[in-house]
Design goal:
It contains 10 helices and 2 strands. It has 232 residues and is mainly alpha-helical. It has a two-stranded antiparallel sheet with strand order 1-2. InterPro entries: GntR_C, TF_FadR/GntR_C, Tscrpt_reg_HTH_GntR, WH-like_DNA-bd_sf, WH_DNA-bd_sf.
Amino acid sequence: MAGQRVQRVAAPLRSQVLEVLRQDILAAEFKPGERLVEARLCARYEVSRTVIREVLRQLESEGLVTTVPNRGPVVTELTAFDAKALFEVRGALEGLAGALFAERATAGQREQLGKVVRRFARTYRKADLAERLAMKDEFYDVLIAGAVNPVIESTLRGIHARVQMLRGLSLQADGRAPETVRELEAIHDAAAVRADADAARAACELHVRNAGAAALRELAARQREDQEPDAG
């Protein structure tokens, strides 16, 4: 398995390794349930065990890594039940965030939300998964900031960390990216342009329902592939 060599630049080494390993997990370079062996990770990213241990602890706090007794750290395996539960809560909270954004966001935040959506619409065909996820993260950063509710902010950020792998699945699903663009444009129109709280809530909830359905389909397909015996 070829790894990405971590560049020694101004950002702290731990932060660089954290970002690269996180993206490798989201891109399925490491499969759900796969052991994350310290020695192999050290060789892959050319860093020390201390750095790897710190990174694994951070990823465990984000829900991407799980420590299993007698096995050590593994890539978290989310069941369909887990995924459905996360998307249910995410939909309710993002719907509320969208409604509050419509009521409370500043003119600058409304403009910024539009800029992010337009950039996503222009570039999603050429963007890789990491770039798409980064743009979605920026979208939610603006939406949550404009909602001006610290409880929603802290709760949603924890949920988003846990559903990162599922967001990767949904964005990779066939035909999902253009649907995502249309849904984000609808959220922007309702929340930032028309300041219609009810419409913003509905648009956010629809986006999460559709993303959840796509992620669950991809999750089921990958699980079927893993269960099929090798041809031979």
